[in-house]
Structures are given as structure tokens and as C-alpha cells.
Amino acid sequence: MSSIIQCRGVEKIYRQGDVEVPALRGIDLDIQAGDFATLSGPSGSGKTTLLSLIGGLDRPTGGEISIDGEPISGMPKARLADLRLHKIGFVFQTYSLIPVLSALENVEFILRLLKVPPAERGPRAREVLRQVGLEGLEDRRPSRLSGGQQQRVAVARALASRPAIVLADEPTANLDSQNAEELIALMAELNATSGITFLIATHDSRVIAHTRRHIEMTDGRITADERRGADIAA
Amino acid sequence: MTGMFASIAWRNLWRNPRRTLITLVVVAVGVWSILTFDVMLKAFGTSSRETSLRLLTGEAQIHAPGYLEDPSVARRMPTPGGSLLGALDSPLVDAWAPRVRVPAIVQSEYRTRSITLLGVSPARERTVSDMPAQVVAGRYLSSDTDPGIVIGQHLAEKLKTRIGKRLIILVQSSDGRLAETSFTIVGLFGGTQGAQDEYAFTSLRAAQGILGVGNDVSEISLFGADDANLDGVVSALKSAAPALDIQPWTTLSPMAYTIETFSQTYVGIWLMIMFVLMAIGIVNTQLMAVFERTREFGLLQALGMRPGLIVLQVTLESAMLIGIGILVGIVLMLLTVVPLLGGLDTGFLAQGMELIGMGQILYPRIDPAAAAGSCLVVWVLGIGAALWPARAAANVDPVVAMAEL
Lengths: 234, 405
Ligand SMILES: Nc1ncnc2c1ncn2[C@@H]1O[C@H](COP(=O)(O)OP(=O)(O)OP(=O)(O)O)[C@@H](O)[C@H]1O
Ligand SMILES: [Mg+2]
Prior knowledge:
By secondary structure, chain A is of the alpha/beta class. Chain A contains 7 helices and 10 strands. In chain A, helix 6 (177-194) links the parallel strand 7 (165-169) and strand 8 (197-201). The radius of gyration of chain A is 17 Å and the shape is globular. Chain B folds into 2 domains: 2-53 and 256-403, no CATH class; 65-243, no CATH class.
């Protein structure tokens, strides 16, 4: 399997006035296409920082990141935006959706950005919402959806754009255990059926239990990288 | 094509209705004031022009060369005939009137004053001037041979004379002698004090008689046809009478022309002032809106929306906001101006305004092209100002989407 995500010596130092806060201190990481990996570690260990660098939302202060073989550190903003649009889906802890758009429109929005013809957008958006179990809730705005339902819309949106990678930062942190279980099961299923690579930052042991690969971070370094032969969700 | 972006823009506008309404009010009031100011100033300009032109000037005048510099009896021309008469009687000209017009001295038993004596043809005079209609006591001249004289009421007071009394008129006749003739006052006219003190009217024949000029005249005042371009009328007359001096009102009555030109400048200045105020309002509220939605702009970028498209999205929002404001402003202007289309009586201001030649009643006219032009300027410049908050939105660091709340 080829590396869809490749990090070489990635460093990130935040500067707050005169104080330098090293958040990542040299990360070497390869994630294979189709992987289902979790990233955990104590608060402040650099999980969010690493995801934002991989997603091209921020730039490393050292090292290089390649997505699908393409180095991204020197890319201009607009090209990074295109890269995210075509290759990366995000699920955040909260606020992953555009508040003025309904569930259906949130999914259609990404298709609009992808320039999918208008006639195709509706049916495709309905289909992915059905796949994530949101049939009947298509016309609700995020404010009228539960936290779990909102995260499902975010997953549906990622699914609709058929990205290579979904980056999720603590997607279950605000969910009760049943909703958390269902969301993980959904992501694992999508990973299995559509081959989308998932990289999920989480403290949640239920999530970790589903993964094929588990990465531990401490203080800006990878301290453990555990691969499991069998996909437990399967 | 932009259906989805437009509906996002529209919904975003109503997320903070109070703020949106404030901006709408600012734009609407600004546009209302610009449009209304424009209409009223134009009405004022037209009214002052009309008043001034309907006094004696007309839209154009014909004289012998040199008359305008030295309005003496020597600078005279024959009564129109031939090709000039043909041009004056053509459909290009609405109305015209011949006059003898010379400086003169008027004497009563008590006082002497210098005036301008006008010998007029009353029937024609009524078609080019409102002065015959301004007679407030007695009557106007009745025919080309009427032996009476009509003077201003105020002049009569100064001369301590009245209707029925006689006045002496002294003029330099065509042979250079001082000619003296007496007339009976048959009427007094009102109107502006300047005109009352300046003019005295006799019949055309009587004036020609005392000056000894036969059928010659000093001046022809005329109005072009309503639909004719004045420059075209003037040049047609010039080719009919190449030896004569033919001038449009813009050179004859520079004051009226200046007022009309100034009104354009004032509207321009007002537009700039209002626009600056509107721009401050728009930029402020839209910047606030952008700051409140920082995380959302981070999200949009995280989703892969290009910065340029975000600028477009936010600008679309401002364009809608300003556009609605402009529409409301137009409605407010119509509500203000339409009831005045029948005429706005400015009698309460007339004392002061007469000085600069404003009539008593203004007739506002809406010029759709000018109004559309002003609205377009406001819209385009407003969108230009809104590019600032739009850029701010596009410059939001996408990493804020990841930030924990
Ligand atoms: N914008 C920033 N400016 C300064 N320091 C920052 C910034 N973002 C993160 N940090 C610091 O970088 C380090 C790593 O932070 P990061 O958010 O990546 O940790 P995390 O593993 O996601 O933690 P958590 O489990 O609490 O989400 C921390 O010390 C944090 O204080
Ligand atoms: Mg984090």
C-alpha cells in the first residue's frame, strides 16, 4: 500500500510574543491509503496541531508533509483549498456545519464547490444522508439537529465529496455513548466499504477499539505506533 | 449558477436582523436624500430659469451687432422680414416678440429716474413674457399703437405718481437729439422690485415714433419649440440672419445658468458626503458580521472554499444589503416627491428666494436616468467599500476551524 499521508520531521512551534511553544517536535509518520487510524495522547500532546498541518489548515515550521505524494508546505492558499476540497474531509468536535444551511444543503454545498451539475446534487446528497441514517431530517438546520446527527451530516458531507482522507478531531467528544458508538461504527463501515482513509484524534477508548492502527503522542512526539492485524469492526 | 451562494448570502443577512435593518436604514436614508435633493434642486434650477426667462429674456434673443455692449438706439435692426421672418414663423420657434429697447429718463412732477424703455407689441409680448400678466393696477397696453405707459408699482411710488397721471420720457433719438414725450400711466405692474424699478413699457409704435426709427426694432425675444434643441434653433436663426447677433439664454442670463449648473455640483457633493457616511456604516456592520462568523469562515476554507470565492460570497451579501437599501431609498423618494409633482408652493420662502430669481411654485420632475445613475454609483461604490470586510473574511486563518470552543 502507498502512503496517502507522509510526514517527515514535522515540527510546529507556536510563538506567543517572546515565548516559543513547541507543539510538534519532529513527527515521522506514514498513513496508508485505506487505513483507519486513531491518534491519542494527553491534552496538549499535539494531536489537533498535527491534524491541522496534515489538512493544510496551517503550515509546519519545519519538515515536510505530502498528501498523495504531493508536498504541501509550499502550496499557495488557493491550491491548499483545492487540495482540501478534492482530497480531505473534516469532522470537527463541534461546529462542522454551515449554520444557515439545512442538512441536505450542507451536503449539496460541497457538491456545488466541486461543480457537480445541479440536477445531480440533490439525489446524491439525499443518498449519502440516507447512508448515514438521516432520512427524514434532510431539511433541518444544524441548530435543530442533535450533536450526533450533526456529526453524521459532517460524515455524509465527507462521503459525498469522496475524499481520500477524512480527518476527525475528537468527533465523539460531545456525544453520549450510544451516539458515539454509532458514529464510530458508521465511520468504520465507510472505511470498509469505500476505502476512505480515516485519521481520528480521540481519547475515546471505544473509538480506539475499532482501529487497525493506534498512534500515541506525548509532548509533540510519537511515542507508540501499534498496528493490529485484524479489523475489529469487520 | 450562483443560486446556492445567493441563498446563503440572503440567509446570512437575516441572522442579525437588527444590524441588517440599521444598515438598510442608513443606505435607504442616504439614497433617499441624494435622490430627493437632486429632484428638488433641479426643480429649483428649472423654476429659477423659467422665472428669469419668462421675465423678458426668452430662450434666445436677436439684436443688431454691438447692442449687448451698448444698448443704444443706433444699434437697431429692421423689423424681421424675408428669411429671418420665415425662420421665426417656422415650427422651430414657438413664440417671438419684437421690441424697441433703449435707456431712458422718466420724470414725474417730483422725481427723475433712469430706466429702460421697452416699446412692445402687446399681443406678441404676452406669448414670450409673464410681465403683461403681472399688472396689479389699471391695465396692460392694448395694441401696437396704445398711447399709454405701464410702469412698476414701486417706481410709481418713488416718482410719487399714480394711474391717470402723466410722465415725461426722455430718450436720445436716432438723429442724436434728446427727444421728450409725455405718456399717461395706464397700468402698474408688480413682480420683483428690480424689474419694477427698471422697466417702463409703451407700445411699439409709440417708442418707434419718439426715437424716429421707423419700423426698426432693438430686440427680438423668442422661445424655441418644446421638442427642439435650443442650439439647433439658434443656428437655424443664425443662418437665416447671418448679420445679426443671436444669443441663447445661457449667455444672456448667466445667473440662471449658473444656478442650474451649480445644482449639479451640489448634488455631486451631497452624493459624496452621503456616500462616505453610508460606506462607514456598511464597512462597520459587515466587519462586525465577519468577526462574529470568524469560525465559520475558517470552516468554509477548511471545506475547500477558495479565498476568492469567500470574497465573492461576502460581497454578494453586501450587494444584496445595499441593493435593498437602495430600493427602499427609491420608494421613500417617490413617497416624498410624487405628492409634490403638482407643484410645491415655496411662498413661505419667497422673500429670500426672489433675490436669486426663484419662482413661487416648484414643479419637481423625476429624471429616471439621473436617479438610476446615482443609485448605480452608490451600489457600485458601496460594493467597493464592502470588499474590505470581504477580504477580512477571506483572510481568516482556516486553522480557527479546528480551535476548541
Ligand atoms: N494557536 C496556538 N498558539 C500557541 N500555542 C498553541 C496554539 N495551538 C496549540 N498550542 C499549543 O500547542 C500544544 C499542542 O496543542 P494541541 O491543541 O495540538 O494539543 P491536543 O493534543 O490537541 O490537546 P487536546 O487533547 O487538549 O485537544 C499545546 O501546548 C498548546 O498549548
Ligand atoms: Mg485537540
